[in-house]
From TrEMBL:
GO terms for molecular function: DNA-binding transcription factor activity, RNA polymerase II-specific; RNA polymerase II cis-regulatory region sequence-specific DNA binding. The keyword Cell cycle does not apply. GO terms for biological process: cilium assembly; heart jogging; heart looping. It comes from Pangasianodon hypophthalmus. This is Fork-head domain-containing protein. It comes from the Eukaryota. Residues 1-21 are annotated as: Disordered. GO terms for cellular component: nucleus. Residues 142-236 bind DNA. CDD domains: FH_FOXJ1. Keywords: Activator, Cilium biogenesis/degradation, DNA-binding, Nucleus, Transcription, Transcription regulation. SUPFAM superfamilies: Winged helix' DNA-binding domain. The keyword Transcription applies. Residues 142-236 form the Fork-head domain.
Length: 467
DNA sequence: GTCTGTTTAAGAACGT
DNA sequence: ACGTTCTTAAACAGAC
């Protein structure tokens, strides 16, 4: 059986960190030290179990057809029970499959009874579910993020206003195993993106600063522009198997069947929240920004480009098409905090949800942000869900529903993806303790539908009323 | 020589 | 069909 390591090999073009730049690893350590990343897996598991992210998936599925995701099997049931009882799986599924060279193609049927693992509702509806894949350890599948997004992620994770190219390389290779094994041509693409993408500004190195190259940061002017405009998104890049390993993947012949992922988890640790807020501060995000209040005339929105002179045979993100779907764009990454900012507002998500569901899915008696005791549980159509983070999940679940039903809001599922990433950038020091974004165990939505079609139809009808 | 940064070109994928 | 976004590849120049 194929077993691959992703810890040593680096592209020959890999570079080391410069001293003056705080490495992502260092910042990750800082984050770990100050955050609940120190929590045990079981803690994360608990969080995942308490999340109402399933509701988001539920709403998505209701809109797109639930049949595709409903399947039950004993394995899933057992896993679900284990999760409920606090017994975490020995290892993340994605990692397991990766360790045997199993190409994880999000959204495609796989043969084993793969539990529906998905903390990224954003991609579920589109057949992509990065959470099936632990990109940090899986060298086979190219992360479904654009290079610009990766750069933004690196910048954000660094918690610095500026970051060097080498630091970007470092962060990407540290956090995406694919790039450790890939040909270093991706670095060229990174540089290409930095040069051409208007989101990124080069900050020249001071004369007294040793080292090569300059620094890069996200253009605040561009970010500011985003405040008055909607983000533009693009498709999710197709799943790409690392060509270096492609041949090895052929060795794997066992067909696998997986259900489309229908569950998800959102965690917002206080530290991650702080990180996000710092990021917002850096890019000047208006905390009161409300996507619902933004007009959607994208052509006007993007008619003025930043004044920075730069020869650009073409420019990223200058277009005005109403592309709102799947992209992993830096704009998105910058836009998401704004969207989340609106979620931080006083909107009564609880009231919305409760009224929408006629009380049948009364998720939170105390409102989105009301404290919930450790032992307080949620009963969702007989599905017992402990509610450690029910408040947050509830708010965000409602959020999705709200935005989906509001046609004026170009809210995209991937917003959740990048947002969640920004909220919870993983750390490279926590190999065994995967941060909440990628490898969180989740509730199996199938359990929810075991209740029977009649009940599901009832739920569908209620959810449908929201859309 | 290596790294960094810019620029051009081509093509794929997707939306309109 | 066309435009946009994004990726990939390549060439080139300057800095270290």
């Amino acid at each position: 059986m194929l077993s691959l390591s992703c810890t040593d090999s680096r592209p020959k073009g890999s570079v080391g960190l410069e001293e003056e730049v705080v490495s992502p690893a260092t910042k990750a350590e800082d984050l770990i030290e100050s955050s609940d990343f120190n929590n045990s897996n079981s803690d994360n598991l608990d969080d995942s179990l308490t999340s109402l992210q399933w509701l988001q998936e539920f709403s998505i599925l209701s809109a797109s057809g639930r049949q595709q995701v409903i399947s039950t099997n004993q394995h899933q049931s057992n896993l679900f029970e284990k999760q409920l009882s606090g017994e975490a799986p020995a290892s993340p599924l994605a990692g397991d499959l990766a360790s045997i060279g199993m190409p994880l193609t999000p959204g495609k049927p796989t043969a084993t009874a793969v539990p529906a693992l998905c903390t990224l509702p954003s991609l579920v509806a589109h057949g992509h579910c990065p959470d099936e894949v632990d990109y940090k350890t899986n060298p086979h599948v190219k992360p479904p993020y654009s290079y610009a997004t990766l750069i933004c992620m690196a910048m954000q994770a660094s918690k610095k206003s500026k970051i060097t190219l080498s630091c970007i390389y470092k962060w990407i290779t540290d956090n995406f195993c694919y790039f450790r094994h890939a040909e270093p041509t991706w670095q060229n693409s990174i540089r290409h993106n930095l040069s051409l993408n208007k989101c990124f500004i080069k900050v020249p190195r001071q004369k007294d600063e040793p080292g090569k190259g300059g620094f890069w940061k996200i253009d605040p002017e561009y970010a500011e522009r985003l405040l008055t405009g909607a983000y533009k998104k693009r498709r999710m890049p197709p799943v790409q198997i690392n060509p270096v390993l492609k041949n090895q993947l052929r060795m794997i012949s066992q067909p696998v069947m997986t259900t489309t992922n229908v569950t998800g988890v959102l965690h917002v640790s206080p530290e991650s929240q702080q990180l996000l807020e710092e990021f917002e501060e850096v890019i000047g995000v208006d905390q009161n920004w409300d996507p619902r209040l933004v007009e959607t005339n994208s052509s006007d929105r993007w008619s003025t480009v930043k004044g920075r002179k730069r020869k650009q045979p073409y420019s990223y993100r200058a277009g005005g098409a109403k592309a709102l779907c799947r992209s992993s764009s830096p704009l998105l990454a910058m836009e998401e905090p704004k969207i989340l900012g609106s979620f931080k507002g006083n909107f009564d998500w609880d009231a919305l949800l409760n009224s929408a569901l006629n009380g049948d899915l009364s998720l939170n008696e105390g409102g989105p942000m009301s404290p919930i005791t450790q032992d307080q549980d949620l009963m969702v159509h007989s599905i017992h869900v402990s509610s450690l983070e029910a408040s947050v999940s509830n708010a965000e679940s409602s959020m999705l529903i709200e935005t989906q039903k509001d046609s004026n809001v170009d809210f995209d599922e991937e917003t959740f993806l990048a947002t969640e990433f920004l909220r919870s950038p993983w750390t490279e020091e926590e190999e065994g303790n995967h941060p909440d974004f990628l490898c969180t165990s989740t509730i199996n939505i199938n359990q929810l539908f075991d209740l029977g079609d009649s009940l599901s139809d009832d739920i569908d009808s209620k959810i449908g009323s929201l859309l």
